[in-house]
Amino acid sequence: MIRPESATAHETTERELARLIVDTLNLEDRPEDIRPEAPLFGEGLGLDSIDALELSLAISKAYGFELKSDEASRRVFASLRSLAAHIDTHRRK
Amino acid sequence: MTAAPLVTGDWSGQRERGSLWLVRTMIWLSRRLGWHFGHALLFPITLYFFLWSRGARGISRRYLTRALGRQARAADVFRHFFVFSSVILDRIFLLTGSVRPYRVRLFGLAHLQSCIARGGGCVLLGSHLGSFEILRVVAARDCPVPFKALMYRGHTAALTGLIERLNPALCNDLIEIGSPDAMLAVRDCVARGEIVGILADRAPDSHKQLTVRFFDGDAAFPTGPIIVAATLGAPVVLFFAVRVGRRRYDVHFEPFAEAVILGRQTRQEDLRRHVARFAARLEAQCRAHPYNWFNFYDFWGSARPELAMPDRHCSGAARPVLRAAGPGPAALPRSADGQPGRGAVEPGLVP
Fold this sequence. Notes:
The complex is a heterodimer of chains A (93) and B (351).
Chain A: H1 7-24, H2 49-63, H3 71-76, H4 80-90
Chain B: H1 3-6, H2 13-33, H3 35-52, H4 54-68, H5 74-95, E1 103-107, H6 109-118, E2 122-126, H7 132-142, E3 147-152, H8 157-164, H9 168-171, E4 174-177, H10 182-191, E5 195-199, E6 209-214, E7 217-222, H11 224-232, E8 236-245, E9 248-257, H12 267-288
């Protein structure tokens, strides 16, 4: 399995993930409107923990691994960038 | 000891500090002098809040007029406050392990047991009717699988801390609403075959709510608990744990759904149907136990049009502007999360 490690690969995951977020949660925002560093929860995109649950389900389907519920995952959910980086590290497909 | 939730809006630190010393005193006196002494104190304490909480009096009277099916009188409102205080007093004793003098009858337990037997976990939907605490305590003692309570702490952190220090072990049964991974924790619990209790009668200050019929008016209810149950594919059982007398509680379990299914095209209608069914069951229980419902805010006033927007999963539904300014709930403590909010399950106060 080839795991994307380069900066461009991360950017590809970010774009993929933005689309997944918009599709899964049926947001009005366009994927390209989601700024990579902006917080996903609260002030930024305004997601909540129920969105996180639905999103985690979509991520497990798309990337073959499950997001954990712990302190670390709170950091993972900080932004599109951190979530995409986490996916690149843990993806199984 | 009951100051904070009786205050609608104006949730200042001053208020919380004001009631803190009272709770501390109550806990101290009750633990040293026993339940009977604590119970004797309830009358003057309830009277104090009855006299000083004008807003809550009006809210209680309007609710009771609906639940009783007749014009509520001052004596009814006082009784409502008194039952509320009693439930909180019981909470102190239940948490400190004085469970033995309590008589708890369980009805419809088979519905829960069949979920447990299947081993797939279960979502227990409850409300601010009666006492969540009694269920937690009974479950901690008798339930073969762990029972977790999903709760919001936020605004009553200090009070909650005070009360929960009485029984730190029970805190392990809490999943705190507010962090992004709260529902992932719920997912993990259900996956382990555990039971997760969620209170589903406080609409959050977000788009995750729907306005449905409740008594003779429209009121906002949260959709979050239904969405969570649907996402997890978990069976849903309702519970109503009501105080029926001095240290006497009845817990009713009712089947709600083997699995909540939200169609991709019919999501909004499906959500509405489930929320309306929940509201109808809650209404029936409120009529049966009118003095047990502890949502001391303008419940029917919460059906604000700008928040009663379709879930954004519905086609074409824009994400509504969150935290929209407006009367009513805007003055209430806010939920940082989309979950059974209206800013609080107030675990420190509302049992």
